[in-house]
Amino acid sequence: MYASPYVYQDNAQVTEMRWTGYAATFETRDPGVPFTGIRGGPTRYVDAYYGPTSATAATFPGKETVVPPPDFGPGLATAYDEARYLPVTRADYLRETRLYDGFRYGEAGFEALDSSPGIARVRTNGEYRLYLLSGSD
Question: How far apart are CA 28 and CA 32, in angstroms?
Fold first, then answer.
């Protein structure tokens, strides 16, 4: 008997807290607000939650959008014309600041998420944080 690929089991790569953070975000998100992400949008979580063929770029805006590294800092809120959701996990932070030593996304950029005007933290659970970037509108 083989395990079903549709049954979620947490592991070191995707913890239960990270999964529940994304799931809660998808359940309560404003469908008109696109996503963006560190090194990539929330594609894998969108596919896991909605199914790989259900959520397309048209039905889930920003599914594969990446934060431009030069914009990652205090000016991130106004780097986009419209509001955006930005999910950030502890793994994102550790990978970017420790493993890659801030090559694309530095520690100052992560600190700016909690201290810059126009960036609001709307969800957190210790492993997952969701920010709302106000946009330049």
Answer: 12
* CB atoms inside a 10 Å sphere around CB 116: 19
Each residue of 24-58: pLDDT tens digit? 999 999 999 999 999 989 998 998 898 878 887 77
**Which amino acid is present at 88?**
V
pTM: 0.89
- Could you give the 3-state DSSP secondary structure of residue 39? coil
Angle at which helix 43-50 crosses helix 16-28, to 10 degrees, equals 70
Cβ atoms within 10 Å of 13's Cβ, excluding its own? 7
Helix, strand, coil shares, percent, the chain, to 5:
30, 15, 55
Structure token pair of residue 4 = 């079903």
